[in-house]
Amino acid sequence: MTGPIQIIPVHGIGEVVPADDLPTIIHIALKEQDISLIDGDVVVVTQKIVSKAEGRMVDPTTVEPSHMAHMAAAQGHKDAHHYEIVLRESRRVVRMDRRVLITETHHGLICANAGVDESNVGSERLVTLLPVDPDRSASRLRDALCERSNATVAVIISDTFGRPWREGQVNVAIGVAGIDPLADYAGQPDTHGYMMQASNIAVADEMASAAELVMGKVDAVPVAIIRGYNYTPTNASAQKLIRSPERDLFR
Amino acid sequence: MTGPIQIIPVHGIGEVVPADDLPTIIHIALKEQDISLIDGDVVVVTQKIVSKAEGRMVDPTTVEPSHMAHMAAAQGHKDAHHYEIVLRESRRVVRMDRRVLITETHHGLICANAGVDESNVGSERLVTLLPVDPDRSASRLRDALCERSNATVAVIISDTFGRPWREGQVNVAIGVAGIDPLADYAGQPDTHGYMMQASNIAVADEMASAAELVMGKVDAVPVAIIRGYNYTPTNASAQKLIRSPERDLFR
């Protein structure tokens, strides 16, 4: 029988800068809050602090805008330098209309501005890029957190994406380690003994969304622990959440 | 400072049949589990038991399939009777390809098969339809639960939808009462005093997703309580989550 799940915000993380050791920062914040990680905890970390620690930041004035970056700037909300970075982080333009630039990143993620975000490091105006390999980032973070806490935890790296048809953004999983991002209910008998219709639930996205509820924006809570969710630890990739072109009706 | 959030599964609800009094059923299940609703709780209820209680069920053999229903059956996974019901629950076909029929329902929701689901009531093979007005269903449920519990709670009616580009389904909010489904962070200063980029978070969808984590499929947990989420009680509609045609890049 499923028990309750807790979503625990991790406070006091503060500003992360390049070459910071994220596992140490998270470990200290947890200690100060008297939280010990336990087996089965899922640690959700926002992309932004991972990218900052990994030095995935660019000064927009250092890149030369291309023709299409100027076109995007003429129609959009940002300047041509910003859009040039977006285009360089992308392998395909999905939609460019109504002041919005939606692209497919080199990872296969489809989102506004390739996940490139304005950021401030001290007084510098930089932009953050998504991690080069969010699964690898998650995996490294997981190894370090497991070792320090002596517990088997999973890690999800999250970002906030818009979606077609529905208003508002939701947090989704862009990198995972130690947990299957999909839970497959296909073919299990339901409570009446009937075989259920296939359903494949994107639990890593649901956990990223759950974590967002304690993260807020102004509070600066870039890490949350999900405790009590039942799963089998396993190696898997957030690539499983990306629909292949053959299965995608919206190409 | 944000505190932890709990997601509490409500067990023991059992099979719901037409004309069942859902507030009473939920109230009894809560009591048996020694849970008292408190101010600020958000009660997430899956569409299926709401539809069943409201008698939103049809015997597919009683409807006459149209030409297009036969076409859908020739390409899809269900029979023509089933697709006829889907078409009658829809105001627009969004995609019909690769064995999938995605439509826009009369509410404006875009999902596979218009939310029509196979169901079993005893030995009868029926299908469930979405509630006629999920906000009204949520509102009625909310009024009754508030009265019985003497607490100001909110209600979200959820369903499991697929989405473009990403694999797996997630739970989303199709009806709400007592809570704004969107949280607007636009224009608030961040922790460094900079004005933040606009972001509008679909918190009702995130809560529906969080609730799914304790619902599972085989466990038959159609209700979950989200406790500890900070919000201001308000009248709002899940229609706010539906992107208007003018703002939708994917029409």
Can you offer a commentary on this structure?
Two copies of one chain form a homodimer. In chain A, helix 1 (22-32) crosses helix 5 (134-149) and helix 3 (67-75) packs across helix 4 (80-88). Chain A has a five-stranded mixed beta sheet with strand order 1-13-2-9-10. Chain A has helices at 22-32, 47-53, 67-75, 80-88, 134-149, 203-215; strands spanning 5-10, 42-46, 57-58, 90-97, 100-105, 110-112, 117-121, 124-128, 154-161, 170-177, 183-184, 200-201, 223-227. With 251 residues, chain A is an alpha+beta fold. The first copy, chain A, folds into two domains: 6-56 and 134-242, 2-Layer Sandwich (60s Ribosomal Protein L30, Chain: A); 58-127, CofE-like domain (CofE-like fold), CATH 3.90.1660.10. The first copy, chain A, starts with a strand and ends in a 24-residue tail after the last strand. Chain A is built from six helices and 13 strands. The longest helix of chain A has 16 residues, at 134-149. The interface between A and B is large, with 72 and 72 residues. Strand 1 (5-10) of chain A pairs antiparallel with strand 1 of chain B.
